[in-house]
Design brief:
Blueprint: H1 7-22, E1 36-45, E2 49-56, H2 57-68, H3 77-96, E3 103-105, E4 109-111, E5 123-129, E6 132-140
Antiparallel strand pairs: 1-2, 1-3, 1-4, 2-6, 5-6
Helix pairs in contact: 1-3, 2-3
């Protein structure tokens, strides 16, 4: 089974989500700086991968303020984690619907780490919302490298 999603499909999904939640599609592409808030959800099952949403710290506060309909000055760190995690969950759910077969979505994980460079097989949307850069990425899971176990005698098996 596989993920049936192309780059233009992801852009369409993300534009639909932003238009629905924020009443405006995303603007032109914008590079993402290093100081970011990143949230991701993992998809497991017939297709395995990660759906990631990242924006600047200021962009995360702005998105959170809009989602909660409160002034930015009222936003706490926990609010940002909840809102950006929910965005990853919403985008992840839309991507999950493009998987041919059964799969499950993990709970969101939110951090202040930059997402790093995209792998060649990743699909990515770089955009901006309210002058805040935004990265949405869908990437298949990487196979784990098997580790060598120690035998009961302490030698590598």
């Amino acid at each position: 089974m596989s993920l049936v999603l192309e780059s233009h499909d992801l852009r369409g999904l993300v534009d639909d989500i932003w238009s629905s939640l924020f009443e405006a599609p995303l603007d032109i592409d914008a590079p993402l700086p290093e100081d970011v808030v990143t949230a991701f959800v993992d998809i497991s099952g017939h297709w395995q991968g990660r759906v990631l949403v990242a924006t600047t710290a200021e962009g995360a506060v702005s998105l959170t303020s809009y989602m909660l309909d409160v002034p930015e000055s009222w936003i706490q760190e926990a609010d940002v984690a909840d809102a950006i995690g929910e965005l990853a969950n919403i985008v992840g759910g839309s991507v999950k619907s493009c998987v041919d077969g059964q799969c499950a979505l993990s709970l969101p994980n939110v951090s202040r780490y930059a997402p790093g460079a995209a792998t060649p097989d990743a699909i990515e949307v770089l955009a901006s919302w309210n002058n805040h850069p935004l990265c949405i990425r869908v990437a298949p899971a990487r196979p784990l490298i098997p580790s060598r176990r120690l035998s009961s005698e302490g030698e590598k098996a």
